[in-house]
Amino acid sequence: MTKITTHILDTSLGQPAANVRVWLEKVDGQNITLMGETQTDADGRAAKLTPEPVASGRYRLCADIGAYFAATGRETLYHSAIIDVMISGEQAHYHLPLLISPYAYSSYRGS
């Protein structure tokens, strides 16, 4: 069992992206199960994405960046950002930061 967290940074402004809706889905073949949903805090963090640690498998970490950019009065190419990952339950923690701007996003495995 492992914990998944994220931190969203708006690289176009050089600051955390607050109040971004994020959710975690488990993907099992054609079945998709919502595992948890929250919003980023003032520091852009979503530490309590799921109430319990998750098992090994394929997951999608999704962020509603379209609504975030609309709320800040900016156009964007992307409606959402999706990080599609394979999680090993043998790892205690996966931190998946998300770097966003109106016309790009990227992620990496953080610590």
Automatic annotation (TrEMBL):
Stored CDD domains: TLP_HIUase (cd05822)
Catalytic reactions on record: 5-hydroxyisourate + H2O = 5-hydroxy-2-oxo-4-ureido-2,5-dihydro-1H-imidazole-5-carboxylate + H(+)
Record key words, sorted: Hydrolase, Purine metabolism
InterPro entries: Hydroxyisourate_hydrolase, Thyroxine_BS, Transthyretin/HIU_hydrolase, Transthyretin/HIU_hydrolase_d, Transthyretin/HIU_hydrolase_sf
EC number: 3.5.2.17
GO molecular function: hydroxyisourate hydrolase activity
Alphabetical GO biological process terms: purine nucleobase metabolic process
Family, similarity comment: Belongs to the transthyretin family. 5-hydroxyisourate hydrolase subfamily.
Subunit structure comment from the entry: Homotetramer.
Protein name: 5-hydroxyisourate hydrolase
